[in-house]
Structure formats: C-alpha cells, structure tokens
Predict the 3D structure of the following.
Amino acid sequence: MAHCPFDFFSDGKKHTICLVGGGGKTTVMYELAAAWAACGRRVLVLTSTHILCPADGSFAADVPAVQNLWQQRRYAVIGTPEFATGKLTLPPQSVYEALKLQADVILCEADGSRHHPCKVPAEHEPVLLPDSDIVLAVAGMDALGRPLAQACQRPQLAAALLGCSLDSVIDAQMLAALLLSEQGARKNVGARAYYIVLNKCDLLKAAQQEEMLRLLVSAGMDEHRIWLRERGE
C-alpha cells in the first residue's frame, strides 16, 4: 500500500484505532496492520462486531500464538469464532486485556456496512472500544451518483438525517454530511481524534475529489486528517 498520510502512522506512539463506516474499511484496516507489522510494530486486530475469520494464518487462538506472529513481524487477529458463520466476534475480555498491554497498535473494526459504500449507524452502533483514542471513518466514493436506498446501509436513517427521500441520488454534499454528522460517521467519537478515508478516489475526476475535500475542510475538518485513497494503494 502507499504510505498512510496520517500523522499517527509514523509517530511511534501506541494507538487504539476504531474503524467505522463502509466502503472498504476492512481492506484499509488490514493494509494498515500489514504496514505497521512490516515496520516491526506489534499489531493486534480485532472486531467489536463481526468480521470474517482470516484465511491467511493471521488468526491467533491464544496469547502464545499472538506472540509467535509478532516475532515473525506479522499482525495478529484475535476474536471468538462463530463456527456456523465463519466469522469472529469480540475476543474474551481477559485475552484482550492481556494483549492490549503488549501491543504497539490495536485496530478494531467497530462497525458493519454489509458491503455498502456508506452508512448511518443504528442506535446500537458503532461499538467503539472504550480505550480507543482514534476513530477512522471510511466511505467509498462509488456511493456518489447512486440512489440512497441502493448505496447506503440503513437508508431510512440516512434519509431522515439528510431530510431527503430514499430515491435521492447521493452527491458530494450529502456524503460529506454523513461523514461529519454526530448522528452519522462521527457518532460517539467524543474527544477521540477523528480521521476520514475517502476510498476509491480513482473513480472520481480531480474536480470531484477537490469538491469533497473542500466540503469537508470548510465544515471544520483538518485537511491533514483526510486521506484521498485510491484502489490498489
């Protein structure tokens, strides 16, 4: 992947990062994990909801297995397997508590989107880790130009938030509103640092990328906390 432009990536500090939204957050999470692990950092990956159990050998069933992966400069994925679904849920609290003291970076997928490029969280979402210091919101730029009912998870909530119909076509202003609203991607962020990944920006023309950036910055987002990410980075 291309170098992550965010300041927290190379500051050498310990971080616990929760990823929310849609549009490729699992891909972003694993790419960040791999990049940090390649630098020799001990990276722990988990979910507070559900993720597919990885098939690449990065799942670790216990603390020694995690430490073994770290010694190989690999990230470790922990969780409680659901054998009926092939997914992982939140790991046992005792396992997480033991490992979070040893990890340099913790990445947690704290939201589900069922493969939609954007979403509005339900009342019980997102499930942010209490000790997290960063929230990373991801949205796929393939949401633009598509009806809200098709491209957004929980479109009824999005329509109510935006004051529009389910047939409304998502434009840059609507997507920016979903990313900036405390009823949207910024829900429950509180005092945590907030960053945005605009994913699949290669689908947009330069003028469209500039418009998205302008809308977010004019609403108060720090430009250095926005990543215009292309596929394949």
User: Anything to note?
Assistant: The chain has seven helices and twelve strands. Residues 94 and 111 are 22 Å apart (CA to CA).
